[in-house]
């Protein structure tokens, strides 16, 4: 078994695609029309880092409860972890693109790390080797 997708609630598909693909460098794996369980139009949008098996299913908030979860899917904790082989290059790319960082990069026993927010406001760790 493996985890293939993790759902990430976003406000708007195209802005989220631009962030994950244009800013973070993910691949757009799929962007297909789909329907909700009650027949309304939606999109099936999957992005993932190059070479990764697990992707993000970008899901547009549907209703007040989901809209309230957008940007806070993990209760304010870091809930997503992006590993970069070249930490410094990825960090520079993200800084230049205007990504919001919550501090400066630091070195921990497990490697380099800095916390950032995605397009919805969720906290991520950008991680790299020591």
From TrEMBL:
Describe the location of the VOC domain by residue ranges.
Answer: 2-129
List GO molecular-function terms, semicolon-separated: dioxygenase activity
Record's keyword terms, sorted: Dioxygenase, Oxidoreductase
Q: Which InterPro entries match?
A: Glyas_Bleomycin-R_OHBP_Dase (IPR029068), Glyas_Fos-R_dOase_dom (IPR004360), VOC_core (IPR037523)
Fetch the SUPFAM superfamilies from UniProt.
Answer: Glyoxalase/Bleomycin resistance protein/Dihydroxybiphenyl dioxygenase (SSF54593)
Classify the source by domain of life: Bacteria
The question of whether Iron is a record keyword is answered with: no
UniProt entry tagged with the keyword Oxidoreductase:
yes
What the entry lists under Pfam families is as follows: Glyoxalase
Which PANTHER family does this entry report, sorted A to Z? Answer: GLYOXALASE/BLEOMYCIN RESISTANCE PROTEIN/DIOXYGENASE, GLYOXALASE_BLEOMYCIN RESISTANCE PROTEIN_DIOXYGENASE
What is the official name of this protein in its record?
A: Catechol 2,3-dioxygenase
Q: Which organism is it from?
A: Saccharopolyspora flava
């Amino acid at each position: 078994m493996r985890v293939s997708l993790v759902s990430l609630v976003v406000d708007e598909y195209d802005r989220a695609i631009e962030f994950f693909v244009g800013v973070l460098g993910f691949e757009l794996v799929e962007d297909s029309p789909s329907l909700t369980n009650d027949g309304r139009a939606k999109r099936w949008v999957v992005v993932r880092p190059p070479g990764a098996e697990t992707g993000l299913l970008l899901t547009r908030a549907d209703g007040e409860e989901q809209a309230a979860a957008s940007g806070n899917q993990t209760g304010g904790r870091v809930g997503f972890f992006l590993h970069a082989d070249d930490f410094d290059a990825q960090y520079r790319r993200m800084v230049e693109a205007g990504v919001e960082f919550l501090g400066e990069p630091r070195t921990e026993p497990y490697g380099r790390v800095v916390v950032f927010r995605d397009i919805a406001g969720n906290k991520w760790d950008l991680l790299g080797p020591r």
